[in-house]
Structures are given as structure tokens and as C-alpha cells.
Specification:
With about 220 residues, the chain is α+β, with helices and mostly antiparallel strands. The protein contains two helices and 13 strands, in the order ββαβββαββββββββ. It has one domain: Sandwich (Jelly Rolls). The structure holds succinic acid and fe (ii) ion (FE2). One of its GO terms (cellular component) is cytoplasm.
């Protein structure tokens, strides 16, 4: 029967397992993506993207801002969460309801119930920007998962193990993909390879955005 197979296009894809407790939900944010990108621009109008400096004195290649009650910041003094944007000295923009609901639905889909993030870090990658292997370990509550949303140009995501030396697997993350990790893999090393020169997306041009939702305490 003509068209029958099209029915399956709307079914959510099965989560792909990256490691114990870690799941890739392909296309999970597709329906919300355009709205999420609009919100990112709105947030950046109040708290602009900036290249933060690591405690070691290096300027990060990904530009960052935050929304929610707490924002992840770094400077020569260290990594930490801050209630105020050090650039504007005001609170971070509120976390939009669309952000919160998406993060909660994604956590739920990966079997993490009752996720209540206090922070959403927004990364912007342009050509050559990357995030070297690291652990997300500035949070006091390690029982909650990390929810990470990809928007715009695709990138190569690395997901390793509990030790920096563990060889990471690589996964191509595309517009609308969501990765959720917690439990046994909550402190696993991860990062992204440099955004390629040919990176392009109809909604973001040569940029890729990432939303990282975290419960801090
Ligand atoms: C990060 O883990 O800090 C960012 C990952 C990403 O951009 O996908
Ligand atoms: Fe991270």
C-alpha cells in the first residue's frame, strides 16, 4: 500500500546506548529546535556569548553563556557555578519553559525520573572550536544525569570511560539529537572534536549550539 511506510517516520527512534546509563536520543529535540534557537538568541541578548578563560590561563574555543538560576563559569580562580553573570553582574536569564520541559522529557526517556536542572550552559562552536575530554564534576549532586542537546551544524562527540586514558567512542551528533548520561557513566570523560570548516546548517549557518542541563546541588 502506497505510503504505509511513511507512518513509521513519526515514531520516536530507539535510544542508542553509549555506555551503562548513557543514551543517545536521535532527533529527540527536532520539533522544538527552531524555538530553542530563538530562545538562545534572546538569552544572548541579555547575557552575551563570551570566551571564558580556564584556571590554566587558556581561552576556551567554544563561546559560552548560561540560563537558569546558576551558570557555569571559569576564570583564573577556577571552575564554579555562579548566580550572577560575571560579565553583566546581573542574574542569568531565566530558563525558558521550553528548555526545562525538553530536558525533563529527555531525562525521563532515558529512565532518569524527576530531573530538575538548575543550570543550562549554552556552548557555541564555530569553525575549529572544540571541547577536549573532560568530566562534568563541578556539581554536588552526582545522582542527577546530564542532558545535552545538539543544535545546528553536526559535530563528532567523544564518549570515553571513567579514566582520561580510556579510548573514547565517536558519535556524530546532529541537529536535534540529545545525549543523556548518568548513573554508572555520570563521571565519564567526554568532549567534541573541532567543528569542521564545511559545517553548515540552514538554521544556524556555520555554528553549532549545545545546551547542557545540570542539577548542581
Ligand atoms: C560538553 O560536554 O561540555 C559539551 C559537549 C557538546 O558540546 O556536545
Ligand atoms: Fe561536559
Amino acid at each position: 500500500m502506497a505510503g504505509t511506510l511513511d507512518l513509521f517516520d513519526d515514531l520516536p527512534q530507539e535510544p542508542e546506548r553509549l555506555a551503562e546509563g548513557a543514551w543517545l536520543l536521535r532527533g529527540f529535540a527536532l520539533c522544538d529546535a527552531a524555538m530553542l534557537i530563538d530562545e538562545i538568541h534572546r538569552i544572548a541578548n541579555s547575557s552575551p556569548f563570551r570566551h571564558q578563560v580556564t584556571p590554566g590561563g587558556h581561552s576556551m574555543s567554544a563561546a559560552m553563556t548560561n540560563c537558569g538560576g546558576l551558570g557555569w563559569v571559569t576564570d583564573l580562580q577556577g571552575y564554579r557555578y555562579s548566580v550572577a553573570d560575571p560579565l553583566t553582574e546581573h542574574s542569568w536569564p531565566e530558563m525558558p519553559e521550553t528548555f526545562l520541559q525538553l530536558a525533563q522529557r529527555a531525562a525521563q526517556a532515558a529512565e532518569y525520573h524527576g530531573f530538575l536542572p538548575q543550570s543550562c550552559l549554552i556552548n557555541r562552536y564555530e569553525t575549529g572550536a572544540r571541547m577536549s575530554l573532560h568530566q562534568d564534576r563541578d556539581e554536588q549532586d552526582l545522582r542527577a544525569p546530564i542532558v545535552s542537546v545538539s543544535l545546528g551544524a553536526p559535530i563528532s562527540f567523544m564518549f570515553g570511560g571513567p579514566k582520561r586514558a580510556d579510548k573514547p567512542d565517536r558519535w556524530k551528533l546532529e541537529h536535534g539529537d540529545v545525549v543523556v548520561w548518568g548513573g554508572a557513566s555520570r563521571l565519564f570523560y567526554h568532549g567534541v572534536a573541532p567543528l569542521g570548516k564545511k559545517a553548515d546548517h540552514p538554521l544556524t549557518g556555520a555554528a553549532r549550539y549545545n545546551l547542557t542541563f545540570r542539577k548542581v546541588y
